[in-house]
Write a structure and sequence with these properties.
The protein has 140 residues and is mostly beta strands. 0% of the residues lie in helices and 49% in strands. It has a domain at 40-129: Jelly Rolls (Sandwich), CATH 2.60.120. It contains no helices and 11 strands. The chain is globular.
Length: 140
């Protein structure tokens, strides 16, 4: 039978959980090119996650449960967009974010989960603080 079981570390703080679901280096060569998949939870209404951008990373987000507002800003041109993501909406929204687009999510419901795919593995060297939403609960 073709399967395996791997236990994945949970990164937990006062905002919720972040789990790196699958890393590129875990895949055999015939399954590459792949970055990583992870999910993010929010512990309560008004919690803020993100407030950063990546210079090299492209990401795709999808809301799994609850609703959230996402603020996007091009760090070069300062063009700004605000979007509402709602898991209860009739259609599913997949949000693609390219390099140099700052992003911050604020939960609008008591429980929110986001799924994320990044085309590269996360690196602290490519995650740059950029405050789009201030004053939320449980900011790190």
């Amino acid at each position: 039978m073709d399967y395996s079981v791997v236990r994945v570390k949970k990164n937990i703080d006062n905002r919720g959980e972040l789990v790196v679901f699958l890393k590129n280096r875990e895949l055999p060569s015939h399954r590459k090119k792949f970055g990583q998949v992870y999910f993010i939870t929010f512990n309560g209404k008004g919690v803020i996650r993100g407030n950063h951008f990546h210079k090299k990373w492209r990401e795709w987000f999808g809301i799994v449960t609850g609703s959230a507002i996402v603020e996007l800003e091009n760090v070069i041109t300062k063009e700004h967009v605000s979007l509402k993501l709602d898991a209860g909406h009739k259609t599913y929204i997949r949000l693609e974010i390219g390099p140099n687009i700052a992003h911050a999510f604020k939960s609008l419901s008591s429980s929110v989960s986001l799924l994320n795919y990044g085309d590269k593995e996360w690196s602290a060297k490519d995650s740059h603080l950029y405050i789009l939403i201030k004053g939320g609960k449980n900011e790190k």
